[in-house]
Specification:
The complex is a heterodimer of chains A (195) and B (188).
Chain A (H helix, E strand, L loop, with lengths): L9 H18 L5 H14 L5 H13 L4 H46 L1 H31 L3 H16 L4 H25 L1
Chain B lengths: L1 H15 L7 H12 L5 H13 L4 H44 L3 H31 L11 H15 L5 H21 L1
Helix pairs in contact in B: 1-2, 1-4, 2-4, 3-4, 6-7
Classes of the chains: A mainly alpha (195), B mainly alpha (188).
Amino acid sequence: MDQQQQPMTRAARLRALFLSTLYISAFTFGGGFVIVTFMKRKFVDELHWIDEQEMLDMAALAQSSPGAIAVNAAILVGWNVDGLLGMIVAVTGTIIPPMVILSVISFFYAAFASNVYVALVLKGMQAGVAAVILDVVCGLGGNVLKTKSVVYIALMVLAFVASFFFDVNVILIILAAAAFGVVRALFQLKKEARQ
Amino acid sequence: MIYLQLFISFLQVGLFSVGGGYAAMPLIQNQVVELHPWLTLQEFTDLITIAEMTPGPIAVNSATFVGIRIAGIPGAIIATLGCITPALILVSLLAYVYKKYRDISVLQNVLACLRPVVVALILGAGLSILSMVLFDGQAPTLNAVDWIGAGSFVVAFILLRKFKWNPILTMCLCGAAGLVLNLLIPAV
């Protein structure tokens, strides 16, 4: 912690937390992990509220928990800065910008999408979205292949076949993989304990 | 009752999307296109396009968009609350456990098994969007292929993969190409 930093009153700290998360959320395109780097810059480098190791651990936790990474990171940062109230303030700051923007868009969407020109632009952009998603999948899938782990590659293939060809429910597939992961982790812990 | 349905649907999206980013996409598609008649595949694809162009997580964007279309502003708030509730509880719990034990190896082990599965599910959702682009919602035959869409997709994919273009820039280019080419070609 920086000793030179003027101590803030609680209200001032909460206000700074709210404005920071609001600002970060409003200007972070690409979401997910990008937002964690912005949070690090703000809360670690600028405000000195959190130390670097804690921020790294929070990033790992935010990524390994269910839900959007940005919201998860806000929950962790909020708890860290000012307990329950801090958490509520940070999450509110994080979800307001996307909610407002999408509300405005969805009000205009019907009129928008029925306009011939807008529909053509949207249709063109869909080709771009498909490319972006498949590009991401290639990157992620490549990482899975690079592990050269038979288990991970088999899981990926099985999940794809189950969902795409057999229409198995997505949630069921995720639950099965999670259960498999828990069993595997317990086995490994046991093995380590025996050594 | 629609509020309860929205809440429960997005609760499931929030609970089962692990790994961030696009992980929520197949779950949202499952809930709002397949299980409930809230969006058509066309509207869902538009939604993903819009979510891609605006800041914020896909799950929160989708909850707001679907909520408003189905049940106005209260619907948007309830759907968004639904999708962040699991995280509010679980992440807070995890933060507590982490503070106590400083060890998340079991969690990371589980995540390692989930990651390949999530990749496969995103691929599935991506392919359904691609089929929307290629065949415009019609049966997949050679006659139904939208060649402008197919061409834009291939060019965009190469720009992203080989030349590491910015995704938003690439999508804007595709939007412009879609407008210009579709207006020019029928006139030729």
